Amino acid sequence: MKPVSRPQDEVDIELIVNGEAVRTRSPARRLLVDLLRDELDLTATHIGCEHGICGACTVLIDGQAARSCITLAVTVDGCAVTTLEGLADDPDMKEMQQSFAEHHALQCGFCTPGFLMTLAGVNRCDGATDERIRELISGNLCRCTGYQHIVEAVRAAWDARSERPSPGS
Amino acid sequence: MKPPKFAYVRPASIEEAIGFVGDGDRFAKVIAGGQSLVPMMNFRLARPELLVDLRCVPGLSGARIAGRRIDVGAMTIQRELELADDVHALCPLLRAALVHVGHQPTRNRGTVGGSLVHADPAAELPAVALALDGEMIARGPSGSRTIKAENFYLGPYTSALADDEILVEVRFSMPAGTRTGFIEFARRAGDFALGGVAAALCLDHDVTTIEDARIAAFGVGSTPLRLRAVEDALRGGSLGAPPIEPAARVGAEEISPIASHGVSESYRRRLIAALLRRVLKEMID
Question: Which residues of A fall within a CB distance of 8 Å from B109?
Answer without folding.
Answer: 61, 64, 66-67, 71
